[in-house]
Write a structure and sequence with these properties.
15 helices; mainly alpha; DNA polymerase, domain 1
Length: 308
Amino acid sequence: MSEVHPIAPDTNISMLAWLAHLRDVRRYSPHTLIGYEQDLRQFLGFLSGHVAARVTLAHLAPLEARDFRAWLASRMHDFEASSTARALSTVKHFFRYLEKQGTLSNAPIIAMRGPKLKKSIPKALAEGQASAAVEGIGELHLEAWVNLRDVALLILIYGCGLRISEALSLTHGDVPLKEVLMITGKGKKQRMVPVLPQVAEAIAVYVAACPYPFSGDMALFVGARGKPLDAAVFQLQLRKLRALLALPETTTPHAFRHSFATHLLSSGGDLRSIQELLGHESLSTTQRYTQVDRARLLSAYKTAHPRA
């Protein structure tokens, strides 16, 4: 006997319309859309069992706070609190869309509060560790041009504070790098980041050594077969480097973005400037780096002060 689909046609149509709205109007990234769809399907799947029927739009409007709390409780053992908070945000977003479309309204979900989250401190590397990583990653591969590529990519992420996706989205048309680089980040928001001479030089050396012919719209960073470089390949190189240099387990491409911000702050950079360089929408997101710098100062105090 075939399994009954938990989502009725009318709900499915509304869900697909919502996802299309996020893609075409709000310009959400494919990765974000996949996460939103998974969260909403998980909620509707739970609700199907909760009401013992395929979920129609008629089931959504009368839902009460206790129904949503039952869903949140069902996730406690299988999902992290941060994942559940994101899923609740997704469901709220979907209900707000339905209300704006005049389809239905549900006040309890809008008022629902998610699980309390521990404020995590960004995992930055020490300046010496970051420098050692930039030097060491150029010695992992048998092919010299691949080593030059990895050096260029890592110094770009660390030197400009980029996300790995932002770095890999650059094309050959962006080189030679000028003093300022225009980056398109999350939500298609653009920002300008200064380019250090060392970054521009590393990119130029890699491009000159790459055996594959470039064209203007071709990905700047390519893999061993000349295809656009997959982030997973570079992440694997960092895992090898982490073992070689005994770096923390948190040494990921994003850790170098964190290190960029932390090292700027410890050198006297102001939060507003760092916020703009990172492309953070909210200053509160950037303020997390003050906790990193405070922790570093306390560690230095405890290590060096004779009375500590």
